[in-house]
UniProtKB/TrEMBL annotation:
<dbReference type="InterPro" id="IPR001453">
    <property type="entry name" value="MoaB/Mog_dom"/>
</dbReference>
<dbReference type="GO" id="GO:0005829">
    <property type="term" value="C:cytosol"/>
</dbReference>
<keyword id="KW-0501">Molybdenum cofactor biosynthesis</keyword>
<dbReference type="InterPro" id="IPR036688">
    <property type="entry name" value="MoeA_C_domain_IV_sf"/>
</dbReference>
<protein>
    <recommendedName>
        <fullName>Molybdopterin molybdenumtransferase</fullName>
        <ecNumber>2.10.1.1</ecNumber>
    </recommendedName>
</protein>
<dbReference type="GO" id="GO:0061599">
    <property type="term" value="F:molybdopterin molybdotransferase activity"/>
</dbReference>
<keyword id="KW-0479">Metal-binding</keyword>
<dbReference type="GO" id="GO:0006777">
    <property type="term" value="P:Mo-molybdopterin cofactor biosynthetic process"/>
</dbReference>
<keyword id="KW-0460">Magnesium</keyword>
<comment type="similarity">
    <text>Belongs to the MoeA family.</text>
</comment>
<dbReference type="Pfam" id="PF03454">
    <property type="entry name" value="MoeA_C"/>
</dbReference>
<dbReference type="InterPro" id="IPR036135">
    <property type="entry name" value="MoeA_linker/N_sf"/>
</dbReference>
<comment type="function">
    <text>Catalyzes the insertion of molybdate into adenylated molybdopterin with the concomitant release of AMP.</text>
</comment>
<dbReference type="InterPro" id="IPR005110">
    <property type="entry name" value="MoeA_linker/N"/>
</dbReference>
<dbReference type="InterPro" id="IPR038987">
    <property type="entry name" value="MoeA-like"/>
</dbReference>
<comment type="pathway">
    <text>Cofactor biosynthesis; molybdopterin biosynthesis.</text>
</comment>
<dbReference type="InterPro" id="IPR036425">
    <property type="entry name" value="MoaB/Mog-like_dom_sf"/>
</dbReference>
């Protein structure tokens, strides 16, 4: 680590936090508010439109956490008790006869008059079918109280919650069969570059296969977006203008490539002509150049073309932007601090997001961190964050963002 611990000097480069804050502010300025009502089984990956408030107590009545016997502790003198009823889950019990116990099973309602359930392992059944309790018991024991999970009127999930299997299960437990969710964000995906051809075709001289298109289209679908696959855009101004003009009814144009200050930056020229453009040089590696702008009022994010740069900038910037457009509050992925299983002898001026893995509790990194090497990310299970102006010895702590955090 840098012993002086000085704040990083990134020159004219923009810190990733600053870029993210700007993008999120822009997302908040054009929120998607239209909603649709969907059956609960179809809301995976979608965003809750309204606060979800419980209309019932959960559980609705006290119930048994064990297979055993329900009794009133004060009725127990040490003598065995007669079993006065048997209560299975799904049944409505009679009030407990004083001085007796009830056979009860997990999830069954505790009868009125009982204040404790003793598990069957701590009992003996005598020849006359009375039950001997072998241990002292306390009121409340093994009873799940009414409303322990939720009470009527309680806020369970705030608007803006992203829904996954756990939230769906929770909503089901409250009895809701349908939810109002924000409509899908419509994202047009464009790959730019004369060198690109689609997989399945024969590779000509100077050509490479388009990997970003499928990477982003399938990532966006996983995120609950509606994807408009706008194909490959050649490095040509007239076609760029026409193609952008044809993208009607979308919430975001997401392009890759052509955002460096290279001569083939036709996207930038088209945006300058018919909208506006901000070109950011970010203090991150991979992924330095990033474009944000508007084309005839439609927001455009231009990610750098190298596949690992596309991945990192989508994960750290475009994904949070899209989630915030739908009103999601928690848009940044979880990041853990883990010891580095590698040394980093040369401090960089940009924050690095290395493709890495956890092995024996330490982060290790793929041997080739070139931004053109997507294999590094296929091998990895996380992004290892090395701060700018830092050197590392093995065992120093680094940030680790699991890829699973950003891939859904
Ligand atoms: P650019 O930002 O257009 O200069 O592209 C940077 C690098 O990424 C170049 O090597 C491009 O060939 C490559 N690249 C751009 N777009 C794609 C894509 N869709 N799939 C794979 N590689 C790409
Ligand atoms: Mg290009």
């Amino acid at each position: 680590m840098n012993p002086a611990g000085k704040p990083g000097k990134t020159g004219s480069l923009m810190a990733v936090e600053v870029a993210l804050a700007r993008l999120l502010a822009m997302a908040e300025a054009s929120p998607i508010r239209e909603r649709e009502r969907l059956p609960l089984v179809q809301v995976q990956g979608r965003v809750l439109a309204d606060d979800l408030v419980s209309t019932l107590d959960l559980p609705p009545w006290p119930n048994s956490a064990m297979d055993g016997y329900a009794l009133r502790v004060a009725d127990w003198t040490g003598e065995p008790l007669v079993v006065s009823q048997k209560i299975f889950a799904g049944q409505a019990p009679q009030p407990l006869k004083p001085g007796t116990c009830a056979r009860i099973f997990t999830g069954a309602p505790v009868p009125a008059g009982a204040d404790c359930v003793e598990m069957q392992e701590n009992t003996e059944i005598l020849a006359d079918e009375r039950v001997r309790f072998t241990q002292t018991m306390a009121p409340g024991q093994n009873i799940r109280p009414q409303g322990q999970e939720a009470t009527v009127g309680e806020l369970i999930l705030p608007a803006g919650t992203r829904l996954g299997p756990i939230e769906q299960g929770l909503v089901a437990s409250l009895g809701c069969a349908e939810l109002d969710v924000i409509r899908k964000v419509r994202v047009a995906v464009l790959s730019t570059g004369d060198e690109l051809i689609e997989p399945g075709q024969a590779l000509g001289p100077g050509q490479i296969y388009n990997s970003n298109r499928v990477l982003l289209c399938s990532w966006l679908q996983r995120q609950g977006c509606e994807v408009i696959d706008a194909g490959i855009l050649p490095d040509d101004l007239a076609t760029t203008r026409t193609c952008l003009g044809e993208l009607k009814d979308v919430d975001l144009i997401l392009s890759t490539g052509g955002v460096s200050v290279g001569e083939a930056d036709f996207l930038g020229i088209a945006l300058r002509e018919e909208g506006e453009l901000t070109l950011w040089k970010l203090a991150i590696k991979p992924g330095k150049p990033l474009t944000f702008g508007h084309f005839r009022g439609v927001p455009v994010i231009g990610l750098p073309g190298n596949p690992a740069s596309t991945l990192v900038t989508f994960a750290l910037l475009a994904r949070p932007y899209l989630l915030r457009r739908q009103g999601v509050k928690e848009v940044e992925p979880l990041k853990f601090q883990v010891p580095a299983g590698f040394a980093w002898p040369k401090a960089g001026t940009r924050r690095e997001y290395l493709r890495g893995r956890l092995e024996n509790g330490r982060a290790i990194i793929y041997s080739n961190q070139s931004s053109g090497v997507l294999r590094s990310a296929a091998w990895a299970d996380g992004l290892v964050e090395v701060l700018e102006d830092r050197t590392l010895s093995e065992g120093d702590y680094v940030g680790f963002i699991p890829l699973s955090e950003v891939l859904s």
